[in-house]
Amino acid sequence: MIYNLLEQSRYEDIANRILYEDNHVLIINKKAGEIVQGDKTGDEPLSETLKAFIAQRDGKPGHVFIGVPHRLDRPVSGIAMFAKTSKGLERLNEAFRNGSIHKHYLALVCAKPDKPEGELTDYLQRNEKLNKSFVVKPPVNATGSGEVKKGVQKAVLRYKLVRSFDRYWMLDIELLTGRHHQIRCQLASRGWFIKGDLKYGARRSNPDGGISLHARSITFVHPTTKKEITVTAPVHWSPFIDG
After folding, report:
1. Considering its fold, how many domains does the chain have in total?
2. Is 242 exposed, middle or buried (0-12, 13-18, 19+ CB in 10 A)?
3. Model pTM?
4. Which domain holds residue 88?
5. What is the pLDDT of residues 32-84, one digit of tens each?
6. What is the CATH number of the domain that holds 150?
7. Per-residue H/E/C for 50-109
C-alpha cells in the first residue's frame, strides 16, 4: 500500500505529540476535534494519519499496521493509545476489557461539586440515534436482586477537586468502568456540566469546538515486556480557563 506524504507541518505536529512509542504501542496526545477511528463523517482519523506518518518516517514501502484498542470522543483531548502489532492489539483489547488499564482525566466543570471528592455510581443507557447516554434507574425484579435490563450498564468513577477558578472547577477523574460518554453523562446528571459540552447541558461552546475534558494519564502493563508503564499527556491550560 502507498500512503500519501504528510505535509511538513502536519508531519512535525504528529511527531511532537507522540508521548510513547515502541515496537508494539504508540500513544499520542490527541487534539480536541480529531477522531481516533473512521466514522460516518469521512474525515481522516488519527489511525490513518499515523500509518502515513510511520511509513514516511521509517521509509516503509508496504502496509503499516495500526490497531485501535480504545476510543476517545472527538471533542475530548489527551491520551489516545494505538497498537502497532496484531499481538499488541489483542493483548491491549483484553486489558481494556478486564479493567487492568487505569485512566485519569481532567475535567473543567461549571458548578462546584457538593463534596471535594467522592465516587459516583450510576446506570447508563445509550441512545444510538442521538449518540448520547442517559442516567436511568436500575430496574429491580420482584426478588430485589437488581438485575439490569439489556442496554443498561453500571458506570463508576472517582473524582477529586484539584483546582478552582472564578467560574470553573477542575476535577481529577479516575474511570473505574468504560461506558459511552460516561464522564460527560455522569457529571451532567448532577449539574456539573463540562465546559463547552453543549450536548450534555453546557451553555456555550469552547472556541476550538472541543470540550474541557482531557485524558491526562494512562497506566498499563506492556503487552510483551509485562512492565507497568504510566504515560501523562500535557494539557494546554488556556482553553480550560479562558472564557
Report:
1. 1
2. exposed
3. 0.90
4. 8-241
5. 999 998 777 778 999 999 999 999 999 988 899 999 999 899 999 999 999 99
6. 3.30.2350.10
7. HHHHHHHHHCCCCCCCCECCCCCCCCCEEEEEEECCHHHHHHHHHHHHHCCCEEEEEEEE
